[in-house]
Sequence to fold (325 residues):
Amino acid sequence: MSLFLPSLKKSGHLNQIHMTICIVGSRKLKEFNEDYAERDGWGVFAPNLTIYGFDADPSACQEMNKEIKARQLNWSEKHLPHAIWDSLGKSTLYLTKYQPCSSLYPPSEDYLARFGGVDMYKVMSTLELETTTLDEIFWGSSGLNTEIDYLQIDVQGGELPVLEGASRCLANVLATAVEVEFMQVYTNQPLFSDIDIHLTKKGFSIFDLVGMYHVHPQTLPFALSPQHPGRLLWGDAYYFRDLIRHDLNIPLRTPERILKLACIADVMNFHDYAMEVLVYLTLRYGDDKNYNFTADIIESIQQLPEEIQQQMLSLPIIEKLKERG
Fold:
């Protein structure tokens, strides 16, 4: 749940920004009953919110677009049937028994069998697809010509190829959440280390890694320990740009972009970073009322439990903000 965004919304500070989200692998949204923007809190930016979803399954995109039209959303959202990859060409989609596990890489069935999950990854059929890139879709000759603020990728082992085909798009992205694997769930797939190196070179810093652990079913319950709950197979990696670094000099380092960064951090529940960025904006650009967030920060803190509220309001930085006015 966001901490600062409700106050920023009420004070009108969100009126000055438009948030654009790109989801590669948007079919997975159908796994949840709630709407994506409402479930994860992005709806706070409506009507200044645009969501682009991409999935290789045309029928899934058609169904999602039909539901969006019926709901009459107060933001823009569309799902486009594209197989996103690192280049324009052809590739084989391996359709698995549990469809969300389908991938452009074949599953490593022998390896998965060790963890009792091979059945859902069983390949039922294959499909030849035309692949494209995010750069082509957004910045090609007939592209969308839209900058992406937040990028989410979950394409079953193909996350690095998606990133490699999005160099121009990534130049404007402020944060990204990427599914990563630590073992060969799919044959010859890139692993977390490959993705981490790529994003680090692009100017992103990892902020958190939420892992999923598995154990060999024949070892249970004897192999479990409180220190090590199993083998780390996959997880979600969260990356942000650090636009408030004093040694950073890139075009993205503008007050508007930095405000977007704070908002994204807050909606993703990185409240400490959101507050750090809002404080930075207030102290550096606070003469402009559009970037003075003293009242918003204090009001948001006052919504916390009393003990935490008292501790935070007594912080030296809060006194500094009050002096800033």
In short: The chain has 13 helices and ten strands. The mean pLDDT is 92. Residues 271-285 form the longest helix (15 residues).
